[in-house]
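new request in #modeling-help
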Amino acid sequence: MALTRSNLLRPLTTSLYRPFSSTSSDSIITVETSIPFTGHNIEPPSRTVETSSFELLTFFKDMATMRRMEIAADSLYKSKLIRGFCHLYDGQEAVSIGMEAAITRKDCIITAYRDHCIYLGRGGTLVETFAELMGRQAGCSKGKGGSMHFYKKENGFYGGHGIVGAQVPLGCGLAFGQKYNKDEAVTFMMYGDGAANQGQLFEALNMSALWDLPAILVCENNHYGMGTAEWRAAKSAAYYKRGDYVPGLKVDGMDALAVKQACKFAKEHALKNGPIILEMDTYRYHGHSMSDPGSTYRTRDEISGVRQERDPIERIRKLVLSHELATEKELKDIEKEIRKEVDEAIAKAKESPMPEPSELFTNVYVKGFGTESFGADRKEVRAVLL
Amino acid sequence: MSIPMLRLAKWGLISKRCFSNTTTCESGKTVNLFSAINQALDIALDTDPRSYIFGEDVSFGGVFRCTSGLADRYGKHRVFNTPLCEQGIVGFGIGLAAMICITDRETAQLQKSSLQIISFPLLIRHESLWSQIVNEAAKFRYRSGNQFNCGGLTIRSPYGAVGHGGHYHSQSPESFFCHVPGLKVVIPRSPQQAKGLLLSSIRDPNPVIFFEPKWLYRLAVEEVPEHDYMLPLSEAEVIRQGNDITLVGWGAQLALMEKACDDAEKAGISCELIDLKTLIPWDKETVEASVRKTGKLLVSHEAPVTGGFGAEISASIAERCFSRLEAPVARICGLDTPFPLVFEPFYMPTKNKILDAIKATVNY
Ligand SMILES: Cc1ncc(C[n+]2csc(CCOP(=O)(O)OP(=O)(O)O)c2C)c(N)n1
Ligand SMILES: [Mg+2]
């Protein structure tokens, strides 16, 4: 059933990033995940995933938007409109998309600095993203956070953290709060393969297991921590087994449907039995950050091989085409439309002014606390920190 | 400078290597800061077979290219990558340093015969390291009644603003470590200084934290002698003579202070500029001698003003030569806010802020 153009574009122009649910009246499509899940101390879920035409098309649009957004951020950085640190997510989109498809906004997500797309997946907008990246008032952290510090409290996104591994114990606290409040919700704590070697990971694992927290540790294994390949840094790169007494699941993180299945399974498990690790086997196309060309410690063949064989967007495109949910041209049109939307968002973000200089002194302490900041020689410049 | 002679003599004994204050022994190539550091590390590895470099990505040259080529030259058993686990890395370094100190205790007491160098950028910012550095490294000698120490340990870390580093990567955490007896804190201002001070830090029998000004890695370029030389620790240097006011700073800040001095000179004010180089233990005598001459003092650093090392300098100088001071000590420092992503120039102790304070202090 090929869709008409107007039909196709509706979700884009209304609310592209709504919570994904299976309320669509579409008929159910069953798909096998790319590869089986591997379990550690747990019986893995089935490879057969239920989806729908609506979901597959939404996956396609959302991932294509993320991809386009990151590529646009790359050029904005090169033209010096974005300064400071900037870590791109292209290649890893299926993790965010699949996860969102399995959970609700009552569930919490906390991640590291590679946070733009996680934020978008949680219901952030393109304008707020670009505004934050360029340090403008309209940004999701009022321009005060920048690339590594995106947050969206109302949708359970506890954000962007710059110190490797530091966000994971924070996630334990979130999960404890959820359990204490009987929220029937879980926390996804995301970290990289490099971060997996931090002591804090093991401290967090122990706490969450000891107190049966509804905690899901998501290791986004993109196989490199900056320029260090996983095998150089880890005695065992089977991160899903790192929890020992905590069960784990290895997931093809390039397959959004596998991610969805795994997250659904993990959520049910965590609510009943406590923590679980999900290792998402994924890949980042860009270098670690903007100062890393990304080609000195891995071969170009490796990168193009992943692009050709495992790309998460192409995987969904193939599914859409093989199930005849849309034509090739319709998908191309969607991509064109996304391009336009991203460009418009950038233009809009550029109109937003920089924060007021007085913002330098706000949010340091609680308002009205009355603490002073001293400048220059302690006599000339004084400001009450708000 | 009154004491340097004494120290020179002592250092001369300890080190048979060419030692100089001005590094004019031999001419060298013009290089930037990271190449100068690379040279120092190369020499350290070459001259002491028990020296090691380890840290995140160091075997590929590190984020700032300071360790380029060293793994190839000295082998992966001496220059190696660690996993991303700072607390563990520092603990490991302390243990390794202690081990070498035991087996070579006799020599270790006389001179530094071993070293390890840790090199990674965010080290100091990782809160859990605190315990390893402050509790394990700094107090090892003291609490073991001198049976053990980790004097061989030198921890290198970038610090300071780069124009766009944001909240974590632009911080200047030097004063935290100045509050820990047992550690030394060293900050170079230029490539030439960096090479000599790093070699001294490596060969010093105490654990040293060596902060490298991020801003200068590529930007600062000067002639650096190719041979092995050391510059003394705990010895400040008067880098510009003057009579009206003393300015004290370290690291990247000195370049700005120098410019402020030039501008002040045009307004008829003669400034004396001192590079402290070692923050702890610091050379009070040199600063005091200068303040006795000028009667005025200005200290400048990027770290927030409250509780910064400038506070310690002003208090000490007020104690030592209160009656000679003709104006309150001026501190031109970072603001008491987190390091901002936007408005960095607003936060920073810029040249004009320094210049204004020079004028205000001189006309007090
Ligand atoms: C505690 C700490 N150490 C070092 C760094 C510098 N650093 C930033 S990202 C990174 C690599 C992390 O790799 P990984 O966990 O695999 O995440 P990825 O970047 O691949 O998403 C490093 C070493 C840091 N931010 N924090
Ligand atoms: Mg990684």
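bot summary: The radius of gyration of chain A is 21 Å.
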